[in-house]
Structures are given as C-alpha cells and as structure tokens.
Design brief:
Number of strands of chain A: 3
Largest sheet of chain A: 2 strands, antiparallel
Radius of gyration of chain A: 17 Å
Oligomer: homodimer
Largest interface: A-B, 53 and 53 residues
Strand content of chain A: 5-15%
Distance between the termini of chain A: 28 Å
Structural class of chain A: mainly alpha
Number of helices of chain A: 6
Amino acid sequence: MTISMHSASVPIFVRMLGNLGQWLDKAEAHAQARKFDPAVYLGARLAPDMLPFTNQVQIACDAAKYGVARLAGMEAPKFADEEKTLAELRERIRKTVDFIQSVPAARIDGAEDRDVVVPRRDGSMTLKGEVYLKHFALPNFFFHVTTTYALLRHWGVELGKADYLGAFGAPAR
Amino acid sequence: MTISMHSASVPIFVRMLGNLGQWLDKAEAHAQARKFDPAVYLGARLAPDMLPFTNQVQIACDAAKYGVARLAGMEAPKFADEEKTLAELRERIRKTVDFIQSVPAARIDGAEDRDVVVPRRDGSMTLKGEVYLKHFALPNFFFHVTTTYALLRHWGVELGKADYLGAFGAPAR
C-alpha cells in the first residue's frame, strides 16, 4: 500500500527530461522554419534577473542528477556548464538520464529516513530523504523544466500541454 | 522502506499552495509600492495563446483538488472560475487547501494500484493511481504553479527561489 523512493523519483525525472528533449527538437524545427539561428534561444530570459535558457536546462538536469545522487548517497558526475548549442544541451540531458538510470533502485529505496545534506549558498542544510525529495528536489526540478517550457512558449515555439506532460495528450482540465 | 500515497501527494500540494499564496501577497505589495492596480496582474500572459494569470492560479488549485479527489475516489467540490481580485484568488487557494486537508489519508493510501479516470477534451483515459500522481497530477500542478511564478517575475515582482521553495531558503544549486 505504498511506493518506493526509487519509484517516486527516478521515473518522474526520466520522463520529464525526455519531454524536455523533445521541446528542444521542436524549438530547433521552429528556428529552421522561421530561418533564425537556434542559438538565439540560449540567452532568452523571462526577466532581466532570471537565469537564461541554457542555465534553465542545465539546472533542470542538475536538479535530477543531484536529487538522485543525494538520495542514493553517491557522488554525482560533474558536467561542465559550457553548452553552446541545442545539440549540446540534448547531450547533457542524455548524460543526465544515463546517470540516473544507472543508479540501482536499492541505493535509493529506504532513503526516506536517511539524512540528505543539501549545499546552500550560505552553508548546507540537512533534510530527511523524503522531505528532500518532496519539498526540494521535485519542486526545484519542475521549476527549471517549466521555466524552460515557458521560455520556448514566450519565444513562439508551438508547444502545448501534451508536449509538457508527454504521451497522455492534453487534459480537459 | 516506502512512502504512502497520501504522503507523496497532499503535503506537496499544501506546501506549494501556501508558497503560491505568499507570492500573491508580494505581488500585491509590489503593486501598492509602484502605485498600480493589482488587478492588472490577472490578465498577464507569457504568450498570446497561453492562459492568463487568473487561470494559472485557478488551474494550479484545481490540479491539486482533482489530483487528491481522484486518488481518493471522491467528488471534488466545484469552485466557479469567477475570481476578479488577488483576494479572491487567495480565497480559492484557501478553499482548495481546506478540501485536500479534509480528505482522510486512508482514502488516498492504497491508490497506487487503483484505476483513476482522467477526463480529457476528447474523452477520458484510465491510469493507475501511482502513474496518475507521478506523471500527470504532480507535473500538471507544478506547471501552473511555476507559470504563475514566472508571470509575476516577468512583471517585476521580486521573488526568488526561496519564495518558490518555501522555508528552506535559496539552494546553492
């Protein structure tokens, strides 16, 4: 009558990162159809003091990568923040999915009661794994995924809820 | 070594809806400081064919309300989509939180293996409760919560990751 911590984390990250990759494909096709350089997306911001598109994709990936690594008590692989094209961002998504799928479920299961140390700008904080997943890792991940989507919509890429959610199609509400 | 379906759903919705309410407070204070009518937020859109601010808040509430009701196999209360002020949107958030907190945990626990019927524009689809929560209800909820946040940031309200996540403060990454 319950779900495991692996089941409550990895499949969500993997599915949404797959959806994110498809938005990049649509963004590239949109740029080609409109005859502009897809690299112009990379600096797009929703506000002057918000991080641009490239950082939103990088941090979406990192939120998933560190989320899973911290729950598993493992070191996450380091990916340099140096992507300059949509293709390189897709490669970062691919490496991220490869890593989180490589983590054995047994390393994550049981994490609900373990301490997870989360680095912060001004030090670190310790949360139980369940609190970390539900109130930090998942919200932070969805923040950057949705902000990436919002940037593409703001810049004219034709995406809809069916692209956001993936294979289910658009909900009535 | 697992978490319950109630624990994997209700606390996430309640916490994020509380955060959302605080963004509305900051938006109202921003409007007062800049001497504009806070009602101008209500029609704000990130793209011409995206739903405006008021709908984003309404649907964030409904995503939580219907998510919990469907997992519990209950009818959700109907809230008319007629809010015209930030105060009325806050009231909708309050009613939503009251409802989802009123649902007994025992009604939701065990939903992982139950069928959930999700209305769609072109009919309906049936998902297992665990799939519905992880790949539909939570992503859809975070979509509308984050889009609301993005709209307020786009319109100049001073919000940061600490406001988004709530009491933990801003993460280093």
